[in-house]
Amino acid sequence: MKPINVTSNEDYLIVQWDEKNTDEILLTSVRWNCPCAYCSEARKDAETEHFTVFHKEELTVDEIIPVGNYAIKIRWGDGHDMGIYTFELLKKLAKEG
After folding, report:
1. Where is pLDDT greater, at 47 or 90?
2. The Cα angle at residue 7 between residues 68 and 54, in degrees rounded to 5
3. What 3-state DSSP class applies to 39?
4. CA distances from 73 to 34, 37, 42, 61 (A)
5. Cys-Cys link to 23, which of 7, 58, 85, 94 (CB 3.0-4.6 A)?
6. Domain ranges of the chain
C-alpha cells in the first residue's frame, strides 16, 4: 500500500494508491490529526465539546513532501510542517471519513 500520487484541492487531500483506488480526506481531518508533538499536545488540551475552527491558511496545502517510502509531510499555508503522515495514518483517516 503506497500512494502513487498525492494532491489537494480546497477541501480534500486526494491520495491515489497503487492498489488502483483513490481516497479523499477532508483537510480539516488531516490538519486536526497532525501527528507532530505540538499538535498532539494541543489535542490533549482541547475540549472535545466544541468544534475547532481553522483559518484558511491553516487548511491550505502549500507543498506535499515525500518522507522515505512510508510517509509524507505537508507544508500548510501558515508554515506548519512538522507532522509526518504515515501511509497507514492516511488510510485510517480515509476510513474514518
Report:
1. 90
2. 100
3. helix
4. 10, 14, 19, 10
5. 94
6. 3-96
**Residue carrying C-alpha cell 466544541:** 50
Q: Could you say which DSSP state residue 77 is in?
A: T
Question: Collapsing DSSP states into helix, strand and coil, what is residue 19?
Answer: coil
Give the list of residues 6+ apart from residue 97 with CB closer than 8 angstroms, or none: none
Reply yes or no on whether the pLDDT at 55 is more than 80.
Answer: yes
Strand partners, 73: 65, 84
d(CA 57, CA 87): 24
Report how far Cα 67 is from the mean position of its chain's Cα atoms.
14
Task: List pLDDT tens digits, range 63-76.
Answer: 999 999 999 999 99
